[in-house]
């Protein structure tokens, strides 16, 4: 359940980020055009929830359907293309086949709905912490293509933009650049890089925390829509220090109580060992005060539960 919640939070954050036309255009230019400013934010049209982006037949209401993560129509020199971005927080070696299916379905839906047929291009925005290792084309995933048939086997490309290794210097959108820079510092565990005297939007900081699975809560940060990074990191370091002290006290108390209980009760069951490991410092202190009244494991569980 936790994994599903984290994935949903990360997907929602990606969609929110890329609903910003400036971020979407900048990421597309990075993915497709080696950061050349080919796609302009003002020339983007949202196609979110458009029937042509549905995965599944539109004439079967009982069939399970899903939409692509983020889809926009973009004008390039007056010619329109449909661009789909798929967000991935985990490595998927079969991603090329999903992209092929998504793109082909958009073509089919455009034909079936008698729309003008626009070209489709897709890429993956990958926010995982492990390196993406996957073939970049469909042909690379296929084995033993006979040389005679190779020219007749259609290919499909899979561009992947990795959050962890992007070159933020090549980005022009300030919001996307901030999210990338903060995320990379969090991935590296290098919080000193974040301690600089500049202001950033609080939402950008929280987006980076979500992408990198960094456990930071909004209440841990200064109030306001913008934060000074020096002040924010000072507050976080203080919280981390306080948590470390609390954890150290709890572990010390746990070890002491386990030794005392072994003397009184003999070998402790795995259930009790696990319960003690997960018990709060407050309950451990209560158990310490009542240690002489304990005669069996049930007495212990009554105190700590």
Which keywords apply here?
305 residues; alpha/beta; five-stranded mixed sheet; two-stranded antiparallel sheet; 10 helices; 45% helix; elongated
Q: What features would you describe in this structure?
A:
- It comes from Faecalibacillus faecis.
- This is Transposase (putative) YhgA-like domain-containing protein.
- One of its GO terms (biological process) is DNA recombination.
- This protein has 305 residues and is an alpha/beta fold.
- Among the domains are: 9-169, no CATH class; 256-304, no CATH class.
- Helices cover 45% and strands 13% of the residues.
- The chain has ten helices and nine strands.
- The protein has helices spanning 2-18, 21-32, 95-112, 138-141, 174-188, 202-211, 229-265, 270-277, 281-289, 297-304; strands at 44-46, 54-55, 66-67, 70-76, 79-88, 120-126, 160-162, 199-201, 226-228.
- The protein has a five-stranded mixed sheet, with helices on both faces. A two-stranded antiparallel sheet has the order 2-3. Strands 8-9 form a two-stranded antiparallel ribbon.
- Helix 5 crosses helix 6 and helix 7 runs parallel beside helix 9 (281-289).
- The radius of gyration is 26 Å and the shape is elongated.
- The two termini are 24 Å apart.
């Amino acid at each position: 359940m936790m994994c599903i919640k984290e994935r949903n939070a990360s997907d929602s954050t990606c969609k929110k980020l890329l609903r910003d036309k400036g971020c979407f255009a900048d990421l597309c230019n990075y993915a497709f055009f080696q950061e050349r400013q080919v796609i302009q934010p003002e020339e983007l049209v949202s196609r979110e929830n458009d029937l042509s982006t549905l995965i599944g037949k539109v004439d079967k209401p009982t069939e399970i359907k899903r939409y692509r993560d983020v889809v926009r129509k973009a004008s390039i020199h007056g010619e329109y293309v449909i661009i789909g971005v798929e967000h991935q927080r985990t490595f998927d070696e079969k991603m090329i086949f999903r992209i092929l299916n998504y793109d082909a379905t958009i073509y089919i839906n455009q034909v079936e709905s008698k729309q003008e047929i626009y070209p489709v291009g897709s890429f993956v925005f990958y926010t995982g912490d492990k390196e993406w290792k996957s073939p970049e084309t469909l042909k690379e995933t296929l084995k033993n293509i006979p040389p005679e048939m190779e020219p007749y086997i259609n290919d499909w490309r899979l561009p992947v933009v990795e959050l962890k290794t992007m070159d933020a210097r090549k980005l022009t959108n300030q919001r996307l650049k901030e999210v990338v820079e903060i995320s990379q510092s969090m991935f590296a565990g290098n919080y000193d890089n974040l301690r600089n005297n500049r202001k950033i939007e609080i939402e950008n900081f929280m987006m980076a925390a979500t992408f990198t699975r960094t456990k930071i809560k909004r209440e841990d940060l200064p109030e306001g829509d913008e934060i000074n990074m020096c002040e924010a990191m000072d507050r976080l370091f203080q919280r981390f220090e306080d948590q470390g002290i609390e954890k150290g006290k709890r572990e010390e108390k746990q070890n002491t109580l386990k030794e005392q209980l072994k003397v009184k009760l003999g070998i402790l069951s795995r259930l009790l060992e696990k319960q003690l490991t997960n018990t709060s410092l407050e309950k451990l202190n209560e158990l310490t005060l009542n240690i002489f009244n304990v005669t069996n494991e049930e007495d212990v569980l009554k105190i700590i539960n």
